[in-house]
Design a protein that fits this description.
Elements: H1 16-21, E1 38-42, H2 50-57, E2 63-67, H3 79-92, E3 95-99, H4 111-128, E4 136-138, H5 153-168, E5 176-179, H6 189-195, E6 198-202, H7 203-208, H8 213-220, E7 224-229, E8 231-233, E9 236-239, H9 246-256, E10 262-265, H10 270-283
Parallel strand pairs: 1-2, 1-10, 2-3, 3-4, 4-5, 5-6, 6-7, 7-10
Antiparallel strand pairs: 8-9
Helix pairs in contact: 4-5
Length: 285
């Protein structure tokens, strides 16, 4: 995923929604309050900036996932844009969750990189705080090589130190949902407990890494606030849900039918979103 977040510098449009709607279709129906969970999509479904996407999507969904994949300060939005996002959420009656920068390395051997992690995360959280996100999605990557099945205890300690830096700055553990990545979530289970962190269960990542989604969900169900949902085929993720066969879908929806948090359909195009929403609607009957 290479989409930069909070990109600024686009020419301001008087009616960005109207312009975008002449080029791309809006969603055909509302999905607000349609399921036991809140349904969310990323802020880049249409090939445009934040505000046009939010104007197109907000009337139809419970929540929007604001993507902030890159930590460069130049990629962060202005406070003016945040105020406009806040106004749109009130107008269309939806909430936000925020995907924090994923290009940081809190487990790095270098203390300066751990400090950069803390400073960057705090900057984004401070900027977006007026939006009152339901949660902040956090990546705690394992960048050591190779990845085995045994946790590197020294890496685990460095991750804990970085999280402690956030807590010391006033961040509350339950506001952060740690996303499942390319290692077993059990590796950081002690850290989740120590800092009272929540979990973002990315089903696509679990499937890519041959983890059992049912086992992982049942183990962490009490801490899971967010599920990321997207298709996987031949090791490629963030595809439409229609790439899954029905047996895989049955396992996924056995979880979703009992889940009451937020489900983000994490795809990045209108066509993939429409295909995924059709699968969702059919299997949630």
């Amino acid at each position: 995923m290479t989409r930069s977040s909070f990109v600024i510098g686009l020419h301001p449009l008087t009616h960005p929604k109207k312009l975008l709607a002449t080029m791309y279709p809006q969603l055909p129906k509302s999905y607000k309050n349609a399921y036991p969970f809140r349904i969310s999509v990323p802020s880049f479904i249409y090939p445009d900036d934040y505000i046009p996407n939010i104007q197109m999507l907000g009337p139809y969904l419970d929540e929007i996932e604001l993507l902030c994949f890159e930590s460069r300060e130049s990629s962060l939005s202005s406070k003016k844009m945040i105020r406009e996002m806040e106004s749109l959420a009130k107008e269309f009656q939806f909430t936000y969750n925020v995907h924090l920068p994923s290009d940081l390395d809190p487990g790095n051997l270098e203390r300066k990189e751990q400090n950069r992690f803390v400073e960057s995360i705090l900057r984004v959280m401070d900027l977006t705080q007026p939006l009152e996100p339901t949660t902040y999605i956090l990546h705690l990557p394992y960048n050591q090589a190779p990845i085995g099945r045994i946790c590197d205890k020294a890496w685990q300690c460095r991750i804990s130190e970085s999280i402690r830096g956030l807590m010391d700055a006033g961040v509350k553990g339950p506001s952060l949902s740690v996303e499942t990545l390319n290692y077993p979530l059990e590796w950081i289970e002690p850290i989740l407990g120590e800092y009272d962190l929540r979990v973002c269960l990315d089903m696509g990542h679990l499937i890519v890494n041959h983890e059992c989604i049912e086992t992982t969900y049942h183990r962490f169900a009490g801490q899971t606030t967010m599920i990321h949902l997207h298709g996987v085929h031949n090791g490629k993720d963030h595809l439409a849900l229609d790439v899954f066969d029905q047996s895989r879908l049955d396992k996924i929806f056995s979880i979703l039918k009992r889940f009451t948090g937020t489900v983000s359909v994490e795809v990045f195009s209108y066509n993939h979103l429409m295909a995924s929403l059709a699968v969702l609607e059919k299997n949630m009957r």
